[in-house]
């Protein structure tokens, strides 16, 4: 006689098999959405003092206990089959998966009007899902500039900057569609930034999703004032902006790949945030050192840019 160990997933998962994706259900699961109310009263086998083992698969009457165990077994089989697929679902926003790490990958580009429609279709339907399947890319979204530039921005949240050098990223095959409309082929002002987080020190609220609006500064500073500038930025400048209403978060990165030395990423609830009185008050009174420190840094063309989310 075959025995089945009780499924290790939470009890509510075993009861609600209809919550599992269609691809993970058997034909019987799809046809029968709820167990029969009949209970066969099967006794647990003697070697199982907790009653976690049933001596039958599914009894003739389809009792709740036996049906539940059989379905739980199917759920576990489906869960193993889904494990690789689920690893690529990075930004669902409905759980506690880490959507933020210590690295960021930013891709900016301008696209001519004649290529705009196809470029967006390719990016949304093929390219973005392709990169989200790379282990270590935790979340991604696309944005369009409402201030500054270049026009389009793709923002990828990385577990760390080493993700960019893994075979899964560097050895990705290029499709015929990508060969025709990728940013490096039809774009202008293509800018890539790979940065490692330097502020805050830790990863806070890693489960938060991609923001609806970003403001991103790309800047460099002379080596002779770099230490003082970073101390001012981290200790006196950016903390005040993080308190402005509508600022969801703010981070700083040291650039590993790109033409700027540093990048700052603000997450906004709306485009009204940088126009608010509170934001402008912070600009004026952030620190006595701010005028001198601002003069020390050089912004890249189009920085600071404000971007609204556009991906579906």
What descriptors fit this protein?
11 strands, alpha+beta, 10 helices, disordered N terminus, two-stranded antiparallel sheet, eight-stranded antiparallel barrel, about 300 residues, Alpha-Beta Plaits
Would you kindly provide a written description of the structure presented here, covering whatever features stand out?
An eight-stranded antiparallel barrel has the order 3-5-4-11-7-9-8-6. The chain has a two-stranded antiparallel ribbon with strand order 1-2. Helix content is 32%, strand content 25%. The chain is α+β, with helices and mostly antiparallel strands and 312 residues long. It is built from ten helices and eleven strands. It has helices at 11-15, 27-31, 64-86, 113-132, 167-170, 176-181, 183-186, 226-241, 277-285, 290-296, and strands at 4-5, 53-54, 103-111, 137-147, 152-158, 187-199, 213-220, 247-257, 262-268, 298-299, 305-309.
